[in-house]
Amino acid sequence: MTHLPGIVVTGASGRMGQMLVRTVAQSGRARLAAAVERPGHDWVGADIGEAMGGAALGVTVTDDPLEAFARAQAVIDFTAPQASVEFAALAAQARAVHVIGTTGLSDDQIAALEPAARHAVIIRAGNMSLGVNLLVGLTRKVAAALDADFDIEVIEAHHNRKVDAPSGTALMLGEAAAEGRGVTLAEAADRGRDGITGARERGHIGFSAIRGGDIVGEHDVLFAAPGERIVLRHVATDRAIFARGALRAALWGQDRAPGQYDMADVLGL
């Protein structure tokens, strides 16, 4: 087993963290090298398997990410924006592939990843699933084929504990629609409507966010014109699809040249 690539999971106690731990440990293609949590967390010092309520996995939860990264080949990180920026610098020091599934990063935080990408592989995506990345490609093509008589709306739904909106996936879809239209999302996005907003502006790309219950993730891209509508849709029912995609990215990144990549690169789309 020691010949398999070692992978560190950050934010190991979270829902995605636990799913990643299980996915890596059961994959047969990689080994769980470490599980990282913030200093002071109750799980630090415990076996990650036992902390998750199962059998021991022989991996102790640590609050020292640099030491953990130094003995691994990849880091999978679904945490928080500032934490991901800090982890990127540490992963670059260790020359470990850094797979970032964290959403909600600001433009400044995304720019802050660039120095790390000069020394190590960073694979960042708002969504790691194959289906969503196919949807992104379809959205780009449909937007390019239709003129601005078709209004574009991105509608997304997630569980009630999600802290950012629109979702990272919704923004990926919005970016794809903008690219298809030959504009930037910054100039075309309409990210909030409340009160007397006036008529919808021609060519704008609108966003709607729904939060409730335990919805894993649903995304619709609506193209609406007088007399007809086209709806592209992806529904996720199990967050394991994101964990499997992240693992695939971590393995794909081995021996790649330093730089920033996304799931379209990983999937060859």
UniProtKB/TrEMBL annotation:
Gene3D superfamilies: Dihydrodipicolinate Reductase, domain 2, NAD(P)-binding Rossmann-like Domain. NADP(+) binds at R38. It catalyses: (S)-2,3,4,5-tetrahydrodipicolinate + NADP(+) + H2O = (2S,4S)-4-hydroxy-2,3,4,5-tetrahydrodipicolinate + NADPH + H(+); (S)-2,3,4,5-tetrahydrodipicolinate + NAD(+) + H2O = (2S,4S)-4-hydroxy-2,3,4,5-tetrahydrodipicolinate + NADH + H(+). One of its GO terms (cellular component) is cytosol. PROSITE patterns: DAPB. The active site is at H158, K162. It is found in: Cytoplasm. Pathway: Amino-acid biosynthesis; L-lysine biosynthesis via DAP pathway; (S)-tetrahydrodipicolinate from L-aspartate: step 4/4. It comes from the Bacteria. Residues 7-128 form the Dihydrodipicolinate reductase N-terminal domain. One of its GO terms (molecular function) is NAD binding. NAD(+) binds at G11, A12, S13, G14, R15, M16, E37, G101, T102, T103, A125, G126, N127, M128. The keyword Disulfide bond does not apply. Residues 131-267 form the Dihydrodipicolinate reductase C-terminal domain. Keywords: Amino-acid biosynthesis, Cytoplasm, Diaminopimelate biosynthesis, Lysine biosynthesis, NAD, NADP, Oxidoreductase. Pfam families: DapB_C, DapB_N. (S)-2,3,4,5-tetrahydrodipicolinate binds at H159, G168, T169. Homotetramer. Catalyzes the conversion of 4-hydroxy-tetrahydrodipicolinate (HTPA) to tetrahydrodipicolinate. HAMAP family: DapB. This is 4-hydroxy-tetrahydrodipicolinate reductase. It comes from Pukyongiella litopenaei.
